[in-house]
Amino acid sequence: MLYLEQSVFKIILLSKNKQIHDFLSEIIHSAKFENASINILHAYSVEECKTIVVNNSDTALLFIDSENTINLRSVNNELFIVTYIRDVLKNKSLQVILRNNFSGKYTPDKIIMKYEINQFIYNNLDSSMTLSSIFASLKAFENIEASEKGKKGLEQVIKSSSNIFEIHSLHKFAVGMLNQLSLIIKSGSNLPFLSTSCFVASKKGNHFYILLGRGRFSSHINENVFDVISTKTMKEFKTVVSAKKNKYSRDHFILYFNNNSDYQMLIYFEKLKKLPKSSVTIIDLFCKNMNIAFDNVCLNHELESTQKEIIFTLGEISEVRSHETGHHVKRVAEYSNLLALRYGLTQREAEIIKLASPMHDVGKLAIPDSILNKPASLTNEEFEVMKTHSKIGYDMLKSSNRKLMKSAAIIALEHHERFDGTGYPYGLSGNDIHIYGRITSIADVFDALGTKRVYKDAWSLNKILLHFRREKGRQFDPKLIEIFFENLDKILTIRRTFSD
Ligand SMILES: [Fe+2]
Ligand SMILES: [Fe+2]
């Protein structure tokens, strides 16, 4: 057995006789049941016993020593405390031993049936007999408790699993796993769960990196697992990974997950005071369920990564085609993400605009080379052709049902609209232009002006900023221009970080 189910078993002794209290104290004094000690709570009256029972719902055994002749028709006997426990407190796991001389007209079997008593002891108490009866009761209590915990744990697993199956991102999956495991551990133990530290790590290359941490690991995100755990634990991690099996130790455990491809994930919990055997079974079961969910999440992660790569590559192709500079789409993505966040869009939306904005000029793939790369100003006719790239880009992307593609389509269509309504293709104005379009417009123009193109030289930063101030409320959304200037230092950091 890995761990003790209980550290202390409580027994209530109900007897008016002081000698019986002394006798039981004596035989229990040094006795241990499965390494746990036994604690006797003494009650000399039914009323006193009732109070003790109510205040100690985790009591394993009630030992009733009754000298009275038991009359099942009378309400004035000690056995009514059993009725109270079973019917009022709804406690079915507490074991009851009755000692009586059974001298009345009712036989023990009738009494046992009526009061849901688990064992009886006839007449005189003998120490070894009494102790074996007590141990048998404690064992029965332990079994009932374990099956109750198992039932609760299973309910928890079913509830947790259905929650986690709805999660599609790896990070949210990790959060869900830690939450649900914490709940399972908590529900399987009566002990506080405050000082526990834990993390989820996923494999990149040959190492595991911390994806999410709590307690002492919360400040180690993205760090190599082997840099934050002891050498001894490191060896255990290696064993877990090679055996692909969970490992439970005295005060910590390591869980292992993998999918059919190469995705691997580890979960580590430490500083656990005590982990009951029933919890280990439940956690193993939970992990089996979660491996299927993990597979789904990995598949989704794979699909999303592929989608992101395709989008970015398309953006880059259009950039190369129009001989634009190396990191133009990368910078546009970063500026757009920053402006979106500062504007108050959600993390998710800011992420979408970051991924979709590199495709703003994808429609240029359909523009003839003679126009796209003309080293001089375009004629009116040529400019009209050039302007079609917004609508062409939109048409290329609009049919997808994916949020990312739909957003990219909007950006392609509206990134040349102007706030004052003089832009193209539709001459939309103000907030009729989608926020994605307004944001990408600023990001794109800021970057384009600062870099050399076939038809123009790079503008100086001062000249660009002056232009931006002038175009506030004309070409650009005034609120976004304010945000742009408030965050100019960060914009310039991005510019430096991804310079060509
Ligand atoms: Fe464009
Ligand atoms: Fe651009």
UniProtKB/TrEMBL annotation:
Pfam families, per the entry: DUF3369 (PF11849), HD_5 (PF13487)
Endpoints of the signal sequence: none
Stored InterPro entries: Cyclic_di-GMP/3'3'-cGAMP_PDE, DUF3369, HD/PDEase_dom, HD_GYP_dom
Occurrences of domain HD-GYP (ranges): 303-500
PROSITE patterns in the cross-refs: HD_GYP (PS51832)
SUPFAM superfamilies reported in the protein's UniProt record: HD-domain/PDEase-like
Name by which UniProt lists this protein: Sensory transduction protein containing HD_GYP domain
Organism lineage: Bacteria, Bacillati, Bacillota, Clostridia, Eubacteriales
